[in-house]
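Running this now, will post back.
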Amino acid sequence: MFTGIISALGQIQAITPQGDGLQLRISTPLNYLDDVIVGDSIAIQGACMTVTQVDQAGFTVDISRESLNKTVGLATLGSVNLEKALRLSDRLGGHLVSGHVDGFGEVMHFAEVSSKDTSWLLRIAAPAELAQFLAYKGSIVVNGVSLTVNLVNDVIAEQAKCIIDINIIPHTLQNTTLAALKVGNQVNLEVDLIARYVARILGHKIPSA
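Update: finished.
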């Protein structure tokens, strides 16, 4: 489990074909991996991966073809958001995150709200099948970052999309890869864990005693 609070920026430095998947070598800040061992989980751009090798400079993960098909941003060199798995004693600064990507979103708009404002507006087109899990002031994970939804618009059903607006503060831009997003980019999305179970329960009748 994770919280969606990015703990470091890493760099995918090497990509090696491995079977039908890939092996990634990711560099990290100094001392970031002091408490990490082989077998631990680290979320990369919001996708939970298992550490297969680790040293002071970075770590290695193996990614299957299935994971590559279900995620974006893990098959190219460059910066990635990192979060180590949650300890039971940790603060839950974001929300409960599984590290399992539910679908791809597309950036439709990303710009400062105004010259007097300190936030940026990120507008994402999400798959229509995720709409039932998205709510005003609810949580969503974008490339591993826990964010708050400020608007949900289902009006373009003919395009099988649901539009969400998110406001992002400067601190988040400075400490995640979100600052590099451009219109047309795809992003990894994970819906709120609780919303997933609520939708499942509401879709089934509860047996009477």
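The chain has a mean pLDDT of 92. More later if anyone needs it.
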